[in-house]
Amino acid sequence: MKIAFFSAKTYDKDFFNRHNQPYGFELQFWETHLGPHIVNAIDEDTDVVCAFVNDRLTAEVIAVLASKKVKVIAMRCAGFNNVDLEAAKTHNIRVCRVPAYSPEAVAEHAIAMLLTLNRKTHKAYNRVREQNFSLNGLLGFNLHGKTIGVIGTGKIGKAFCKIMLGFGCVVVAHDPFEDKELIIMGVRYLPLKALFSTSDVVSLHCPLTTENKYLINKDTVATMKPGVTIINTSRGQLLHTDDVITALKSGYVTYLGIDVYEQEEKLFFKDLSGSIIEDDKIQRLMSFPNVLVTGHQAFFTEDALSQIATITLNSINELVNGLEVSDPSVILA
Ligand code: NAI
Fold first, then answer.
1. Which residues line ligand 1 (CB under 6 A)?
2. Are residues 39 and 79 in the same domain?
3. Active-site residue, selected from the candidate residues 205, 262, 264, 318
4. Which residue of the set 235, 240, 262, 318 is catalytic?
5. Is 19 a catalytic residue?
6. By alpha-carbon position, which residue is closest to atom 1 of ligand 1?
7. Measured by CB atoms within 10 angstroms of the end CB, which terminus of the chain is less buried, N or C?
8. Residue 276 and residue 253 share a domain
9. 212-243 pLDDT, tens per residue?
10. What's the predicted TM-score (pTM) here?
11. In which domain, by residue range, is 97 found?
12. What is the CA(151)–ligand 1 centre distance, in A?
C-alpha cells in the first residue's frame, strides 16, 4: 500500500517513518505542494495521498487522483478548506483529517510568546552572550493578578485558561458555549465588550469564521485597556494587521505576539533568508521591538507530531482496509 506525501518536510519523514513500523506502508515523500502542476506525475500505484494546509486539492486535482485510482486523501492537519469535498464524494474518494492533536502544544506556545514579550528573555539571551549584564530595557510585569481575556474556550482555549489560572491570573472568557468545568475553576464568562475593557492580555483561541474576520480592529482595540497585550495563535485574519500596526505605533497596544498572519501562505514554512520579502506589513511588524512573530509553529512539538502521524496512519489503515472507523470525527467524506 503506497502513500504519497506532499509538502513533506524532514520532520514529516521522521515522524511518519517512525510511526509506520506497525503498518509497513510504502511511504513516498514529495517536497512540492500538491496542485494541478504536479498531480499528473503521481505514480499509478499510489493508493493514498497525504496532504497539508497549503496543498490544493481542487476538483481538477481530485479528478486526476481518481483516474489514478487513489482511494483516500488523508489531511495531516485539522483544517480542510483547501479540499473540494464534493469532488471527492463524486469520485468516491474518502477524505480524513486530524481534528485534534495536543491542544496543550498551542496553549503552551501562546504562553511562551506572552512570557517572552513580557520578560524579554530573547533580548537577555543575546545581551548576556555579549557580556552585557545591564538590566536597562528588560523591565517586565508580573502575570500574577493580571486579567487575561480568552476568546474561544474550546480545546486550546481551555488548556490556556488552566495554565493562566495556575499563574494566579484572573481569567475571563468569551465563547458562545460556556465550559462548566472552567466556571467551577474560576473562569468568568463575559460579553466581548466587557472582556476587552477589563483584560490586560487578550489571547485568541477561536476559529476564523465569516462573522469574526478582523475581530481585532481599530474599533475593538479602542475599547481595550491602554497598554494591552494581544496574542494570536489562531488565524491571521482574526486581526486587522494595519489597525494593530497603528495601535502599536501610538503605544496603545504594548505587546503583540502572533504565530499566524493574514498573508502567511506566501511566507511561512519556507526558508526565505536569502530572499527579498515584498510584504511590507510583516516587515513593519518585525521591526517593532515589542512584537514577536513566529511562523505557525505553535503546534510543533514532539507530542503533537506523534499524534498527527499516529492518527493519520490509523485512519488510512481503517479506510483502505474497509475496517470500522474508530473515531468518526476524522472522516470528512
Ligand atoms: P475548538 O473547536 O476546540 O474550539 C474553538 C472554540 O471557539 C469553541 O468553543 C467555539 O465555540 C469558540 N468560538 C467559535 N467562534 C467564536 C467566537 N466568534 N468568539 C468566541 N469563541 C468562539 O478548536 P481548538 O482546537 O481549540 O482550536 C482553536 C483554533 O486554534 C483553531 O480554529 C485554529 O485556528 C487554531 N490553531 C492554531 C494552531 C497553530 O499551530 N497556531 C494549531 C491548531 C489550531
1. 78, 100, 103, 106, 151-157, 174-177, 205-207, 209, 212, 233-235, 259-260, 296, 298-299
2. yes
3. 264
4. 235
5. no
6. 154
7. N
8. yes
9. 999 999 999 999 999 999 999 999 999 999 99
10. 0.91
11. 2-101+301-330
12. 9
